[in-house]
Amino acid sequence: MDIKEAVIQGIRTAMDKAVAAGKLPEGDYPDIVLEIPPQKEFGDFATNIAMQSARTAHCAPRHIAESIVEELKAPWLDKAEVAGAGFINIFLDSRVFYQVLQHILTVQEAYGTCAERPEDTVQVEFVSANPTGPLHVGHGRGAAYGSSLVNLLRMAGYKVEAEYYINDAGKQMDNLAASVNARYLELFGRKAEIPENGYHGQDIIDTAKAIAAQDGDRYLQVSEAERLAIFKDRAYEEKLKALQKDLARFHVQYDHWFSERTLHPQGIRQACDALRERGKVYEKDGALWLQSTAYGDDKDRVVIRENGEPTYLAADIAYHKNKYDRHFKTMINIWGADHHGYVARVRAAMAALGYDTKRLEVLLLQMVSLFRDGKPVKMSKRTGQAITLNELIEEVGTDAARYFFIMRSLDTQLDFDLDLAMSHSNENPVYYIQYAHARIYSIYRQAEEAGIALPQRWEAVQWDLLQEEAELALIKKMAAFPEEIQRAAAARAPHRIAHFVYETAGLFHAFYNHCRIIQEDRELAIARLGLVTAVRFTIANSLAVLGISAPQQM
Fold this sequence. Notes:
GO terms for molecular function: arginine-tRNA ligase activity. The chain has helices at residues 3-20, 49-52, 54-57, 61-71, 94-107, 137-155, 171-187, 202-215, 224-249, 266-277, 312-325, 343-352, 389-396, 398-406, 418-422, 429-449, 469-479, 481-490, 495-514, 522-546, and strands spanning 34-35, 45-47, 77-83, 87-92, 117-125, 158-166, 256-259, 281-284, 287-290, 301-304, 330-336, 360-365, 368-372, 375-377, 414-417. It has 554 residues and is an alpha/beta fold. Among the domains are: 3-92, Gyrase A, domain 2; 122-165 and 255-365, HUPs (Rossmann fold, 3-Layer(aba) Sandwich); 425-546, Isoleucyl-tRNA Synthetase, Domain 1, CATH 1.10.730.10. The strands form 4 sheets. The protein has a 5-stranded parallel β-sheet with strand order 7-6-5-11-12, covered by helices on one side. A hairpin with a 2-residue loop joins β8 and β9. α5 (94-107) crosses α17, α6 packs across α14 (398-406) and α10 (266-277) crosses α11 (312-325).
């Protein structure tokens, strides 16, 4: 039951009746917008439709509001009041909220799930780090945000595909092979240097040791070119498997892993040919240039270098062309803030190919700063290198890491308090939420000890026994969950669900402290058990969106 939509339709019907009765003139009235008042004495909903309609109706907003209220009749309505210059405050009949409670207990794990929208196909591409080493904390924010967005969009009814773009071609893979090669040669007493843009992490040494342990010095007998080719494939396979394992540990799953190698050379050639056919590229100084300034970029960009090698942009053009050719209605790229300058050139390329750039959304994640004891933490104690996602998980756990990454809007810099994330206190938001869920299972155990069994069917429960303010506030909060899912999905804002579930947990803890659940009045006890069961589903469904577990014990 969508209460808000029912109220909007009810007000619209009342306006139509007021027009038909001659109380208001005919006209093109604006859409009705409902807000939740900041204070409960102003009702469950409020609207300024009367003030918005004054120009159309050519009369005072208060007269418009009074005319609407006179005609407003609905089974969900307790009363409607005109306030101030023309606000309309709506007070709902408590039976409406009991229906919401019954609905939650009927659909259970499906509560909050919206009707399917199969025509709204969405591809979300996120993380897409080079398979040259372990994921770091910055990748963790992208992983948590991207996977939560995928969950959120699916719950909102969209048909979603999560994709990882594997940058497994180009210079960085050559540098990976050369770095492993240098470490391998060192193991056998040979002098070798890691290239200028090579990789110096402990994981490269471990890779070289693993190759040596398995195959000994056999690769000393082959040419350097052959050795580099072998090491490139071996290192790539190892790094990619490790990356996939780390992401799975972080509750991140993909529908498709797209290899950049598959674009070389045919995909890139096809993209360049398409640009040539449209007259959007030109040759200069032996290179092929994209006319990106024609589409808002600050300068034209090289697509094919003078030596015939494609640039990174060429591969990205081919990749995004492939995306468009897969006919997604919307494509969402989640990139780091350091890619800000890259957005214009990719959009320019898609516009040059004749694609609708409104279908491509690029969301930029701001930086993450770790703090311990109030001081910034930049390097791993273990390796002296940047802190990896795995190290963060080992320290604070997957659930806490995901919540802290998600709880702020992606366009704000995130200060990650390690001490808070590790604490088992109500100050830790993820602990506070999970404790609410676990506390409900504790209540179940108390009910069992008291000989009170949960009913097999909830229809016969006397919900009208729930009259306490703490009870009704909790039900009203849960009633907003389906709409919050839709709004968060539309805004690409999973942090809204993080806030929603935190607020729901807060209202539950307040209810628990105010209302005795297990008591002699069995009918009231069962009604309150039904209420906490609905809270359990709402919290668990919210946490599922965030990729966070809902424990039964803590």
